[in-house]
Amino acid sequence: MPETSVQEAQVRSRRKAVARMTYRRRVTRWLIRLLVLAAALPVVLTVLYSVVPPVSTLMLARYAQGLWVDRQWQPLDQISPHLVRSVITSEDSTFCSNDGIDWAALEQQIAILQEGETPRGASTLTMQTAKNLFLWGDRSYVRKGLELPLALMLDAILTKKRVLEIYLNIAEWGEGIFGAEAAAQAWFGKPASQLTRVEAARLATALPNPRARNPASPSAGHSRLAATNLQRVAAAGPLFGCVLPSG
């Protein structure tokens, strides 16, 4: 091969190598930007959600599919304190004292997992709020792992009252029914501010399986759960001081 042809081939090879390196650098830069954006977006949204009523990812999915959604935002002081007490008692009795994560319960569930048994969750209200705001509904260890830093972030940025207010306004209480106001209207024909103790207990104990449990006409098992919730609320003591006036 003539020397000129060899030199031209070498130049073309170098140019291709440079082009590949440039392409890789561009891809790397874009990946880094996307990762930074993905990490920053929940923080930015959480700051926004401190003043703006958010919607959940499940609500967004239903909107995208053209499905019916009923959500009527209400401030916490327009939601019955009976529901506040019942939900905290049922879902996260350490809500006022934890930092978004119930570490003792989490360690207990990890120990259960290590023994080969099925863990039962240890999910706090803040973790559930993080899931509803930013993540998907299917259960997986990946999703659970993402819930932890998101819950810590929510607890660091938002007040306890705001976390609970958001939770009670985006929690699912039936097919297309989101939030305490929509749930109270759908199941009991009244505003959330007027829920009785029994109605609140039925709504709170419907949360683990909201599409299968009917708060207005509960099954025998659901009624027992609600009765237990009422007893626990009565014996709870000062569990609600971060969100309700004392006394």
From TrEMBL:
Pathway: Cell wall biogenesis; peptidoglycan biosynthesis. InterPro entries: Glyco_trans_51, Lysozyme-like_dom_sf, PBP_transglycosylase, Pep_trsgly. It is found in: Cell inner membrane. It comes from the Bacteria. Its main location: membrane. One of its GO terms (molecular function) is peptidoglycan glycosyltransferase activity. It is an enzyme of class 2 (transferase). This is Biosynthetic peptidoglycan transglycosylase. The gene is mtgA.
